[in-house]
């Protein structure tokens, strides 16, 4: 996979904006919200139909993040996203990256985002290249190291090529990906 921008780094910036909004405007109290993780408590606020946009200094759209619901927890300083959809655009080049899942949890102090459930990452660098699609069930992004990983089954498809593996580590800064085990590939040329 080829990354022209740090896919989730922009989310950090948006998260900062969201925390500012959440701390300044409490939209819902803890009695009104049921979390999918009962270990977290102290809901400070909830935003429904969350829709955030981040722009490059040039004014070009950098990221568009949508979530059915975003809940901030003060005790763990985390934000839980329901059905997040993230669309990223590079600053200099054409292309885009989409990232969606059933849920996400952003641990703000540790700068770790964990996505779970039907994760689909779709990327196209430009119109002349085929789209790359990666699917998995759980994915962690460590913003400080600019590193993604999963111990789950992964399927990566690009054009007529498909690679399946169990586990993935990817250093986004070095643009290096390691598939951990049970790697199988398939290529079907167009007749």
Description of the molecule:
The chain is mainly beta. It is built from 1 helix and 11 strands, in the order H-E-E-E-E-E-E-E-E-E-E-E. It has a 6-stranded antiparallel barrel with strand order 2-3-6-7-5-4. Strand 1 and strand 2 (61-73) form a beta hairpin. The chain starts with 8 loop residues before the first helix and ends with a strand. Mean pLDDT is 77; it is low at 1-39.
Helices and strands in order, then pairings?
Layout: H1 9-24, E1 43-55, E2 61-73, E3 78-82, E4 85-88, E5 96-100, E6 103-107, E7 112-124, E8 132-142, E9 147-158, E10 161-171, E11 176-187
Antiparallel strand pairs: 1-2, 2-3, 2-4, 3-6, 4-5, 5-7, 6-7, 7-8, 8-9, 9-10, 10-11
Can you tell me the residue ranges where pLDDT is under 50 for at least 5 consecutive residues? 1-39
> What average pLDDT do the residues reach?
77
What is the total tally of β strands?
A: 11
Quickly give the structural class.
mainly beta
What is the global morphology?
globular
Helix-strand sequence: HEEEEEEEEEEE
Largest sheet strand order: 2-3-6-7-5-4
Radius of gyration: 17 Å
Distance N terminus to C terminus?
Answer: 25 Å
Give the helix level as a range of percent.
under 10%
